[in-house]
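In this section we walk through a basic example: taking a raw amino acid sequence and producing a predicted 3D structure, encoded as discrete structure tokens. The instruction is simple. Fold the sequence below.
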Amino acid sequence: MSSAASALLPADTLPPIASGTGAAGIALALNRDCNCRSLDVGRLRQQLEAEPALFGLAAEIERSRPHLFSATAVFIPPTTLQAMSEVVAATEAVIALPGFQSEVLGRAPAIAQLDHGPRGVFMGYDFHLCASGPQLIEINTNAGGALLNRALAHAQHACCAEIEPYLRPTANLDRLDAVWLQMFLDEWTLQRGGGRPTRIAIVDDEPTQQYLHPEFLLFQHLFRSAGIDAVIADPAALSWQDGRLLHDGQVVDLVYNRLTDFYLDTPKAAPLRAAFEAGAVVLTPHPRAHALHADKRNLALLSDPARLAVLGVPAELISRLVAGIPRTVEVTPELAERLWAARRGLFFKPACGFGSRAAYRGDKLTRRVWEEILGGGYIAQAIALPSERLVNIDGQDSELKLDVRAYVYAGQIQLVAARLYMGQTTNFRTPGGGFAPVFVTSG
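The resulting token sequence is shown next.
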């Protein structure tokens, strides 16, 4: 077996962290043994319905998206948060290297070569919390849920005396709205140099049908509360006329991009693409950000110590990345036989996929699916087993899997949230599951 393929072993091979009196032991005990429900539904409603235009939003979420929010919180020790921050910082440092950019942009579409200045808002660094430490399983550009998770974290209460000392959020929740608004203004400044946008469009395919449409309404309120007009639009509702991007005849200055058409390839994205290529609109996140961060083939480079050394990455950063990213390789015909033999310890993902679509655990693979994977565009990643959270569902205790998302901008973690689920991947269909706030224990 090649060194690349033989390195693809499950990341979580160490014995479980021993329970104790320290912060790590407390977090472990709370997650495994405490089934308390800390969500205050009334407070959540207040957070979601901050202005009259949002009245009824909480009831609509409960009706149409009953598993969007979990009633249970997740706990991590400070060492886990610090390790996540170090992996994020190391990853961003490598992504900034000219050699890394040359390699990954060389295989990306031409539109990804354009750099108008913005960094890209709401990078989502998704981790599994393994016994060996947090494992970065993927990076997403237009990561959703930030405003929803801010509201959710604000709506928690101490359900018992034991839990009260540990309801410490991963950010100053009262400042987050201002932080996120400033992030968009910073994106504007990076391209325009000064001033501020007059109108922002929040753009996604059929936005009212999107599962996270409630968050679009929260963003609209955030922008309007700052005196910036905001619309929610399908890309087909935009037009490119006389060097300007328009919506309903009015100029759009900045687009908050929630499309999964990452390179603006579809016909209805043509006006947005033309405006972006001309530099007539500030687009965030943008195709370049996706190519540099979210193409999953990048994980094969970021987890390969030999290739990182060739790029001149310092040994300290290489060690951090190798310890924090499950070994990943691109699926090629040359590795097919070896990867098939090792498949039970692997997870297969499309390089440009999103939302766990067409992703497969190796031990569930059929020969038919394997042939599709060999058709191209997949990576194989060593399985990093997710940790679990005890929840109470209709009076019965159940253990749900969890992953943790760090919302990142300019290399800094702004907020950490969890997703609880059953099954192969996160799905928002699990009773008792959904988004969950993350709190930091002390010991």
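Looking at the output, two observations stand out. The two ends are 44 Å apart (CA to CA). The CA atoms of residues 87 and 321 lie 6 Å apart. In the next section we compare this with other chains.
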